[in-house]
Design goal:
The complex is a heterodimer of chains A (about 120) and B (about 525). Chain A has about 120 residues and is an alpha/beta fold. Chain A contains 4 helices and 5 strands. Chain A has a single domain, classed as Transcription Regulator spoIIAA. Chain A has a 5-stranded mixed β-sheet with strand order 1-2-3-4-5, with helices on both faces. Chain B is about 50% helix and about 20% strand. The chains are: A alpha/beta (about 120), B alpha+beta (about 525).
Chain lengths: ~120, ~525
């Protein structure tokens, strides 16, 4: 049905950057939640999720991102989504995700803002 | 606000609505997709739960399943709930309430009067809604969902989405459960097919074998194909002596006697009387203690299966399961029993055949069968360029023995000599009652030196083993003639002739001796 989901992450100063690959509609997407929790525990609470390589995000993906948003809210951190496709942006908006997370066109813009 | 602005704002709202519906429809089609995926039930449940939460924008939730067998609900899948595992026994009236209330399935937890025990256990999660999962009044379970972000409750519209999605999830779970049942039934069917094919092969193996010994050896190895056994024996019952003769065995046989009298063995008595399969385990079965002989032969845990043919008790199979296997499964026993039925028919066939080719009194092969086998053996010896020896034996002064002691004693003498011959031969040798007081022995793969040695050993046994009939010790001796294919002859008739001539020579020159037939070359020179 879809290519296997995978992700890579890196910590740049106070910022955790997660780059997903593949459709965020698989249970593999739970990894996003795990990595965020891990870093929030270590007080890295500014997170940038680059969704450029994940053009299709269905409700499974949304439910996981909601979990991430909640955890960041609780820790008083900040979350940014970057490189959203127009469809994904519409979905995020409709589901109210963008009230809690800022969208950026490019990953660097978000990282620069959080580092500054 | 201008009129056009108002219109565009309504339009925008409409568009938002359409988008939301589209999104819910997508979730419904994803549920359908999930159904077609080949994955575990738990993985499917998890996907269904995430689909639901993501569609509603809810932070947490869980799916509980109802086990109708023990009337218990358990949390099978959860996301961010306080408990990861939870079990609860549903009282009957609660089940009835949930199954009957079919008009609506989705409720705000605050207004819901059922399942309070469970909802209170999850109070900390501040759950918003609960949906009962059922298909045609049959309770499957229920699911719970929390609030949206910032503890915002679901809108009425969203509660209605939840209801629709819950219905679909019920069907998905029900289908999966039905599919699992079907899969299990399939596995059972596959097992049956496998069993039948094992039995078919085993039966094929034994059905065409007419030699009892070979047949029971095969039976033993066929059973070891059917199930894992550590040790096993086959015994055939001999009515005349009320005893069981050991026919074949697998595993350690050093402690086994050649035969067991029915009188001495409780186990044999039980099987012969019940004519049914009998499982024994020391301490658990009756009799609590076995006689020493029985325990030595059969062990401490075993199964005994009778070999029957149309109700006639022919013998038994005795099997010990592999150590650590915890005995035999009911499937093993069933297969062995079916196999024993086939074996019963095969044993009866072989016994009838043996009766047809052996002499009832001496238990040696008959002349007719001897001719046929000798011809086969000569062909084989010629093809593989091997030797084949023939020994002819004649009891000395048999007529005089008969006249002096009577025919009955004469018969005893014949039986006595026959039993010496039977004991002297190897598996592939053929002891024959050639006629009257004359015997023959066919020894494949044996040359003149070897054959003369065998004959000499038998001669000495006959001479020294005394026979006592009615208190009278009877001295017996015999004369021997030995010929070998192809040293002495090139065909059956001349091979028999050569041994006969040698035997005649022994008789003519003082009896109680062995004479080797001359080689062809010598004869030609003469």
């Amino acid at each position: 049905m879809s290519e296997e989901f995978s992700l890579s992450h890196q910590v740049d100063g106070p910022v955790l950057i997660i780059r997903t690959k593949g459709y965020l509609n698989d249970l593999g997407a739970e990894q996003v939640d795990e990595i965020c929790s891990e870093h929030l525990e270590k007080s890295v609470n500014k997170i940038v999720i680059n969704l450029e390589q994940s053009p299709l995000i269905n409700s499974i993906g949304i439910s996981i991102l909601i979990g991430v948003i909640e955890a960041i809210e609780e820790s008083g951190g900040a979350l940014a989504f970057t490189n959203l496709t127009p469809t994904n942006r519409k979905t995020f908006e409709m589901m109210g995700l963008l009230q809690f997370a800022e969208p950026f066109d490019k990953e660097e813009e978000a990282v620069a803002k959080y580092k500054g | 606000m201008s009129e056009s602005e108002q219109t565009s704002s309504v339009e925008q709202k409409m568009q938002q609505q359409v988008l939301r519906y589209e999104y819910v429809l997508e979730a419904l089609s994803d549920i359908g997709d999930e159904l077609c995926r080949v994955s575990s039930f738990d993985a499917q449940l998890k996907s269904l739960l995430h689909l639901l939460l993501g569609t509603l924008g809810v932070r947490k939730g869980g799916i509980f399943l109802f086990d109708n067998y023990n009337k218990r609900v358990s949390l099978r899948c959860s996301w961010k709930l306080v408990h990861k595992n939870f079990e609860y026994d549903l009282p009957h009236d609660e089940i009835a309430g949930l199954e009957a209330d079919s008009a609506d399935i989705t409720y705000r937890t605050a207004d819901y009067n059922h399942l309070r025990g469970i909802l209170e256990a999850f109070a900390e999660d501040n759950l918003d809604c609960i949906s009962i999962l059922k298909v045609r009044e049959k309770l499957i379970g229920f699911l719970v969902v929390g609030h949206k972000l910032k503890e915002v409750p679901l809108t009425e519209k969203e509660v209605s989405f939840l209801k629709t999605l819950s219905r679909n999830i019920s069907v998905a779970i029900n289908n999966f459960l039905l599919l699992s049942e079907l899969r299990e039934a399939n596995v059972r069917l596959d097992e049956k097919i496998q069993e039948v094919s094992i039995l078919y092969q085993a039966s094929q193996m034994i059905s065409s074998e007419l030699q009892l010994q070979a047949l029971l050896d095969m039976a033993m190895s066929a059973i070891s194909e059917i199930t894992d056994i550590e040790r096993g024996t086959t015994w055939l019952y001999e009515e005349e002596h009320r005893q069981f003769n050991l026919m074949s065995h697998l595993g350690d046989a050093s402690k086994l006697p050649e035969n067991l009298s029915l009188e001495d063995s409780e186990i044999l008595q039980i099987v012969a009387e019940r004519k049914d399969t009998f499982e024994y385990e020391k301490g658990k079965s009756q009799p609590a203690e076995l006689k020493r002989l029985d325990e030595k032969v059969f062990g401490e845990a075993f199964v005994v299966v009778p070999i029957l043919n149309q109700g006639e008790f022919l013998g038994l199979l005795h099997l010990c399961a592999t150590a650590g296997a915890n005995g035999f499964t009911s499937r093993d026993i069933r297969l062995i029993k079916v196999f024993a039925v086939q074996l019963g028919a095969a044993v009866k066939n072989a016994q009838l055949y043996e009766q047809a080719i052996t002499d009832g009194m001496t238990k040696l092969y008959l002349h007719r069968y001897f001719k046929q086998r000798l011809l086969d053996e000569i062909k084989r010896a010629a093809r593989f360029k091997r030797n084949l020896a023939l020994i002819m034996v004649d009891i000395d002064h048999f007529k005089r023995l008969n006249d002096t002691y009577g025919h009955q004693t004469g018969d005893e003498v014949l039986k006595h000599v026959a039993s010496i011959l039977r004991r002297a031969v190897r598996t592939h040798d053929l002891p024959v009652r050639y006629g009257g007081e004359e015997f023959a022995l066919v020894l494949p793969e044996t040359d003149m030196t070897g054959a003369v040695a065998v004959a000499e050993r038998i001669r000495r046994s006959i001479e020294t083993d005394f026979l006592e009939v009615n208190g009278v010790v009877i001295k017996i001796t015999a004369s021997f003639g030995v010929s070998v294919f192809s040293d002495c002859a090139d065909d059956m008739d001349s091979l028999i002739k050569a041994a006969d001539v040698a035997l005649y020579w022994s008789k003519e020159h003082g009896r109680n001796q062995v004479t080797a037939a001359p080689a062809k070359v010598t004869r030609e020179v003469e």
